[in-house]
C-alpha cells in the first residue's frame, strides 16, 4: 500500500523539525554557550554583546526540543489510529510569536558579528574554530542564524501543502485550516515587528539630522516625505535653498547648515498640518511654485 499524500507531508514536517532542532542545538548549546564562556573569562567580547547576538535563541531551542518535536514524534507514531497534526500545530502556533524578537534582532546580530570580529581577533578565531567542526557542515555562523528566520514561512508552506492533499472528508481539515490561519497571523506579527522597528530607526535618524530638538521628538510621528526646496523671496525676486520634512502632523521648514557639527539642518519654522493650507501658483517667472500657509506664516516655495 502506498502512503497517503498527506502522511508524506506530515513526515516531511517531522524530518525537517528534527533537522531544525539540531541546528538550534548548534546555535544555542555550542555557539552561544562557548562564546558566552569565553566572554565571561574576559577573553573575547563583553557578555552583553554575545547576549545581543543570540537574542532569545535559548527559549526557541527549548520550545522546539522539549515540546514541539516530541509532540510531533508521538503523533506520527500513532498515525495509523489518529491521522492528524492540525491540533498539535494549533497548540504550537501561539508560542511562535517569540520569533518576533529574534527576527527583529537578526540584522543587528549579523552586524555585531562583523564589527566584533574586526575588533577582537580571539572572538573571530573562536567562531572560525567552531565553524570548522563537522557539525557546522562548512557553513558560517550567520548562515545557521538565518534558519529560525526562515522556519515560520516553511511551516506555512508545508501546512498549505498538507491541507491541499487532505481528502475532503478528513477529520483533520478543520483543525489544519485553523492552524494555518494562526501561523499566518504569527508571520504577520513578525513582519509588523520588523516594519515598526525600521520606522523607529528611520525616524530617529531624521531627528538626529535635525539636532534632536525636544519639541519635535515623538515616536508616534511618521515621516511622509523629505527633500530640498527653493524659497522665493518676493522682495528680491531670488530663490534660496531650503529643506522640508513632512510628517503626518507637521511640516518642518529647515535651513541646511554650512558647518555640519551634529545636526545637518536647523528648523526655522514648524507648521502644523492641522489647519495648514497649500495652494498652487501660476507664476511664469518661477514655475512649480506653491504657497504653504500656517497659523503664523505663509511661505512661497518652488519645487524642482
Automatic annotation (TrEMBL):
GO terms for cellular component: cytoplasm; cytoskeleton. PROSITE patterns: DH_2 (PS50010), PH_DOMAIN (PS50003). Residues 222-304 form the PH domain. Residues 5-193 form the DH domain. Transmembrane segments: none annotated. Keywords: Cytoplasm, Cytoskeleton, Metal-binding, Phosphoprotein, Repeat, Zinc, Zinc-finger. One of its GO terms (biological process) is filopodium assembly. Its main location: cytoplasm. SUPFAM superfamilies: DBL homology domain (DH-domain), PH domain-like. GO terms for molecular function: guanyl-nucleotide exchange factor activity; zinc ion binding. It is found in: Cytoplasm, Cytoskeleton. It comes from the Eukaryota. This is FGD2 protein. It comes from Grus americana (Whooping crane). The gene is Fgd2_0.
Amino acid at each position: 500500500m502506498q502512503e497517503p499524500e498527506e502522511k508524506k507531508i506530515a513526515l516531511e514536517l517531522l524530518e525537517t523539525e528534527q533537522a531544525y532542532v539540531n541546528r538550534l542545538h548548534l546555535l544555542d548549546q555550542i555557539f552561544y554557550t562557548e562564546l558566552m564562556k569565553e566572554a565571561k573569562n574576559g577573553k573575547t567580547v563583553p557578555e552583553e554583546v554575545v547576549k545581543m547576538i543570540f537574542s532569545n535563541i535559548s527559549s526557541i531551542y527549548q520550545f522546539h526540543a522539549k515540546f514541539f518535536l516530541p509532540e510531533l514524534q508521538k503523533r506520527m507514531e500513532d498515525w495509523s489510529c489518529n491521522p492528524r497534526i492540525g491540533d498539535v500545530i494549533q497548540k504550537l502556533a501561539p508560542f511562535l510569536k517569540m520569533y518576533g524578537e529574534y527576527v527583529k534582532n537578526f540584522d543587528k546580530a549579523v552586524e555585531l558579528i562583523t564589527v566584533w570580529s574586526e575588533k577582537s581577533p580571539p572572538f573571530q578565531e573562536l567562531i572560525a574554530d567552531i565553524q570548522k567542526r563537522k557539525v557546522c557542515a562548512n557553513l558560517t555562523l550567520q548562515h545557521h542564524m538565518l534558519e529560525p528566520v526562515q522556519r515560520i514561512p516553511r511551516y506555512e508552506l508545508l501546512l498549505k501543502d498538507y491541507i491541499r492533499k487532505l481528502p475532503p472528508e478528513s477529520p483533520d481539515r478543520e483543525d489544519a485550516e485553523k492552524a494555518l490561519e494562526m501561523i499566518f497571523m504569527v508571520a504577520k506579527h513578525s513582519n509588523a515587528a520588523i516594519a515598526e522597528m525600521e520606522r523607529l530607526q528611520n525616524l530617529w535618524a531624521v531627528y538626529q539630522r535635525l539636532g534632536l530638538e525636544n519639541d519635535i521628538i515623538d515616536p508616534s510621528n511618521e515621516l511622509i516625505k523629505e527633500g530640498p526646496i527653493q524659497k522665493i523671496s518676493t522682495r528680491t525676486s531670488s530663490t534660496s535653498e531650503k529643506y522640508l520634512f513632512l510628517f503626518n502632523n507637521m511640516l518642518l521648514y529647515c535651513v541646511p547648515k554650512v558647518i555640519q557639527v551634529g545636526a545637518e539642518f536647523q528648523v526655522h519654522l514648524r507648521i502644523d498640518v492641522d489647519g495648514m493650507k497649500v495652494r498652487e501658483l501660476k507664476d511664469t517667472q518661477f514655475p512649480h511654485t506653491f504657497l504653504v500657509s500656517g497659523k503664523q506664516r505663509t511661505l512661497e516655495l518652488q519645487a524642482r
